[in-house]
Amino acid sequence: MTEVHETGAAAACETRRACLTALLDGELPPHDATEVWAHLAECPACRRAWEELAAVRDLAAQWTMGDTPDLWPAVQAQIEPEPWETVMAELRQLRAETQALWGEVAQLRRELAARPTPPEASSRLLFPNGPAAPAGRRLV
């Protein structure tokens, strides 16, 4: 933190406020913690931010859930699904959709095979541009 070159009071406040959570958690190196404490002693706005942060932490520490051993796994399953579980669920869904489509295709093939083909339709299928004349001959 000592490498940061502040250009004014606002920059000093911004730099110190960025360290408040680490200070609260005891994660700041001693020299940096001393600098932040000194700033908090001089700056009412930052001191207010520190007091609010500390109050929120204190309230959160008092909050209890009672005896709910199965709560965290249920919450974790909702916010952090295992990637492979998600992929496998998607693959199962795709497989079911693909099988349904193959069933529809097979049904359509059966229906088409059962239909009689009119003679003019079969010749159009064989010769979409009309029947071809042998080389050197012309169809009349």
Characterise this structure.
This protein has 140 residues and is mainly alpha-helical. It folds into two domains: 9-61, no CATH class; 80-126. The protein is built from seven helices and no strands. The chain has helices at 9-17, 20-24, 30-42, 44-62, 71-79, 83-114, 119-126. Helix 1 packs across helix 3 and helix 3 crosses helix 4 (44-62). The termini are far apart.
Task: Reconstruct the topology from this structure.
Layout: H1 9-17, H2 20-24, H3 30-42, H4 44-62, H5 71-79, H6 83-114, H7 119-126
Helix pairs in contact: 1-3, 3-4
Essential attributes:
140 residues, mainly alpha, 2 domains, 7 helices, elongated, disordered N terminus
Shape annotation: elongated
From the alpha-carbon coordinates, what is the Rg to the nearest angstrom? Answer: 38 Å
- What is the H-and-E element order? HHHHHHH
Structural class: mainly alpha
Overall pLDDT confidence: 80
The count of domains is 2
- Give the tally of β-strands: 0
Taking pLDDT < 50 over at least 5 consecutive residues as the criterion, the unreliable ranges are 1-6
Q: Helix segment count?
A: 7
Largest β sheet strand count, sense and barrel closure: none
Beta-strand content: under 5%
First and last CA, distance: 96 Å
**In percent, how helical is the residue content?**
55-70%
